[in-house]
Amino acid sequence: MNEPMPDASYSLEIVSELTGVSTQTIVQYQEHGLIQPSLDDETIRALRRLEHLRETCEMNLAGLKLLTQLLEEVERLRAELRGLR
What we know:
By secondary structure, this protein is mainly α. The protein is built from four helices and no strands. The radius of gyration is 15 Å and the shape is globular.
């Protein structure tokens, strides 16, 4: 049986190029716990989501952190409900 391939790991500069987010902002997001320290495909998805929220909702870091936590909680609850069915 084939095991899933792990996500690729990227350098800070490559993630910055792929997402259009400055390296300084990426580090700031890591320091505030908005993204994981590893720079992989999940991080790229999270950065794109954060930037979309920041641009459309005009949120600061505190707002982004709160909204991210709320969205994660909604996803956790949805998964829990799916497990009950």
